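QA checklist item 7 of 12: single-chain prediction sanity check.
[x] sequence parsed
[x] length recorded as 455
[x] structure emitted
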Amino acid sequence: MPNDYDLITIGGGSGGVAASRRAAAHGARVLVVEGSRVGGTCVIRGCVPKKLMMYAAGFGGALREAAGYGWVDVGGRFEMARWADAKAREIDRLEGIYREMLRSAGVELALGQARLAGAGCVEIDGRVHRAGKVLVATGGAPATDAMQGLTLAMTSDEVLDLRAVPASILVIGAGYIAVEFASILAGLGARVTLAFRGDRPLRGFDEDLRLRLARALEQQGITLAAGIALEALSRDADGYALQRADGSVLRADAALNATGRRPNTAGLGLETVGAALDRSGAVVVDEDSRSTAAGLWAIGDVTNRVSLTPVAIAEGRAFADTEFGARPSRVDHRTVASAVFVDPPLATIGLTESQASRRGPVDIYESDFRPMKTAFAGGAARTYMKLVVDGLDGRVLGIHMLGPDAPEIVQGLAVAVTCGATKRDFDRTIAVHPTAAEEFMLMREPTRRLPAATN
């Protein structure tokens, strides 16, 4: 029986759309299957609306800071319903753009629930289609199994649809989603308690960033309820109650579950084609995104490699170039920049100090200061910058920053790290003055030199 398509992509998010368009550009007949809205998590219920909410929260601080610059009678009142309506219109517009990108590329779109029905066979709401290759790009979804009662709380999906700011909220978790929404909601006027069992938020990030982030969150008025295991969440007429292992109870009007995400693999029929899954439910793939099942590939968050939208896009394009364009390509997951949109934001690329010291001797360069704009207005917020440098050949192994414009600055410097720049390259680069970014060019002496770690 001939194939209906050369490629069927399950999932119409950023990675799936990028892979499908690139495959079509190489001449493939492509069908994308999407069970919800085209654009996926990032566009519809993730990165984009979250950053729009972050911008809204940032205006509160900007209005207060304006007084320090001579502005008078500056004030206002945030109405979340107005923001929500504007956000909905923007997401509708962006979804329309994604649909048009597929149409103009010659990619067909089918709305419905997809399930694998055998090698190269995809069932869509009862109808079976065949393809030479199948790509799974179904992303992830909020996890709800970290403790009893967690399903009572909002997730990152629902919090973006709020039409009023809660007076108080428990944010449960310590990853980037948790700290981002804790910071955003605090900026919009909520009393926020960030509850987690570890000592500091953002496990896995550089320790100096984690320390300064914790201070910045507290400066925002966020209560850090750290260091105690969380046991159960309940709800009554007065709101939400979070039971902790020491017997204490945290209460608030609302609760947000930000304990992590899980790959979207349930119900896809992966077991019927022999695709291996790891302990988290992610599709196991090799360097070319090929699964253990014949004719089946997977990209993006469903593979649990580096769960970032640009990575999913890069993986999708690499797959399409390799399989349909006769241009073999792989994604290097070792050096990927990332940002956390708190107030102030942080960004990072490369190795942490701890990771680098396990590989050999390292030199650490740091700068910690009040940025000009904040200092002039009498603010206390600080900017922190850090270079992790190979102690043998001077190559820059990691860049870490917390402060205004950190994501934009680190994005630019990510090119240098990817190209293997050395500390000497930074030293001989003429700084742009006055900027915060110039501090990365002006770090002349290391603050400490570390031998290779022994464990």
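[x] summary fact logged: The first strand starts at residue 5 and ends at 10.
[ ] second reviewer sign-off
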